[in-house]
Amino acid sequence: MLSQQNLANILWAFAKVAAQPPARAAQAVAEDALHSMQAWSALNIANLSWAFAKLQLRHPRLFDAAEQECEQKLRHFSPQNLVNMAWAFAKVSLARRRFFELLGRRGAELAGDFNGQNCSNAVWAFASVSFVSQELLDATSRRAVHLAPDLCAQDLANLSWAFAKLSRRDGALEETIASQVVQKVHSCSPQHLSIIVYSFAQMLAAGLPQSMPRTIAEDPRLRHLSSIPAAPSANSMVEVILTAALQRVREFDAQGLTNLAQSLAKLEMIKDNLLEALVEEAGPKVKTFTNQELAMLAWACARLGRFRSSVLRLVAKETKARLAELTAQDLSVLVWSFARGEDEEATPAPGRKQDKGRKDAALGAAMLNTLGSTVMRLIHELTPQDLSTIVWGYATAGVECPDLIEAVADEAVGKVASFAPQDMANVTWGLAKMGLLHEELLEVLSRDFVARASECQAQHLSIAAWSFAKLGASAPQLFRALGKALAQRAEELDPQGVGNSLWAFGVLCFWHHPFVQAVGGRAVADASELTVQEIANVAFGLRTLLSWRRQSKDPGAQAEADDLAKLLMDFLAASGGFFCRKASGDGASWTDFANVAAAAAKEEVAHMGR
């Protein structure tokens, strides 16, 4: 019988040279190990686990036994042994929470003896199973900073990826990685460069928290509370990588090209020369792109307002060939991209012609029609975010597919409870934009907006108000909740939200005195920030509510109408000059505003006469 060391070494040798052993031989080694592992040393347990993972031999009983023996002998594991165990379990996707807690605590104790590869492999393993051991991350980070000159390109890439994956930031480590990448950029492979820049783009764009308690750091809703600016060296590193990428673009594979494009999008960096080079290089390599990579390339270009011409045609052609292979996530990303296309707010590229823009828009709309059959095929697999994105996308592009959207709305009814506030707002807006009065879905959405008003941003609430009003859907309970919430959070509304919410309450003649005073007061105070359309919307909403309130027989209605009349006149005085300077001609906004001003003045003169 072979000794424990011989058994471990046999598989280790196969794994080291990436040679797959005969299945019977691997099974025999596993069976022998199961019978004798209690007597094995820490080194042999770690080597055998590493070898099975490296060879992608998932043997549940063997890993169960290795976990048990490791727990009992943990004090005898060297830094290398311990990291190998973590790496092995992560490689075969065995996310054993209790086991990783033990490895994290022991790893933090041993981190002072880690080498660069130990540091990077340890955090890579924990990130791969999405397990946060803050003590291990802190200890490993300190050690990596100390070992800075010894960190190789793979170490720098692993550390960057792991901290981004776990939504953690460490200023000293970022500074170290950035400075080392700048020094070693020419020795970094395209894969390393794309991973590093993508990871930093994720961290910097999201404003991930630094050195925060886990209860805050793990809650994405609170990340904005601790957004920190990028270190100067991090910005310099990104520029160095992007410059190198432009020079070496032919060396990047599909994943690398996609990572670079996504990095530009996440950081909102318009670098047309680089993006055009990425797209040109993607052309002959497009068959090597996974469906996800193809979708994310489209997303990145659309996010930058550059999803057009060659890249639009490239993605459209390849998407048509892959319709049967698309997943629900691929589909929703592609719908978003084709719908958004060239963002009107993005900086236009030199020489961009209007006729080309119309052709691109037509191709985007055609692709949304083409994707309709795939939406129906995957409809029961669509997540709440997928559903909301699809409704938003077809509405944004103005593509009329009523049967399709009706089916998506039917599917959404049973999933609204799992919608995020943004999803609720997107679906409600999309239905209104397309004029689809889906009563069952609107009823469920209304109920959830009422129950979850405190979770929603003020902007989500104003979108809900506008959408229900646009559809002419009276929902008194909803508007009472919206009025109460917006009255308390009027300062959070942007100018569009101010205009839309007042317009909505006016259209439905729904009276909520605190809302009118709070949001109307915002309109007066910020009149100079409103667009022509927003000024007209506010004026219409206040004027309509005033007329309706004047007719009310409710106690106190006339006093409230007097307050509103003053508010309206204050708004007209504050906004009139800005409106005249901003408005470009006659048109609907001019008519609305002029009618409101004239009617308000006439009515108030008559009211004072009474």
TrEMBL record:
One of its GO terms (molecular function) is RNA binding. Coiled coil: none annotated. Residues 25-203, 366-485 form the RNA-editing substrate-binding complex 6 protein domain. This is RNA-editing substrate-binding complex 6 protein domain-containing protein. Pfam families: RESC6. GO terms for cellular component: mitochondrial matrix; ribonucleoprotein granule. GO terms for biological process: mitochondrial RNA processing; regulation of mitochondrial mRNA stability.
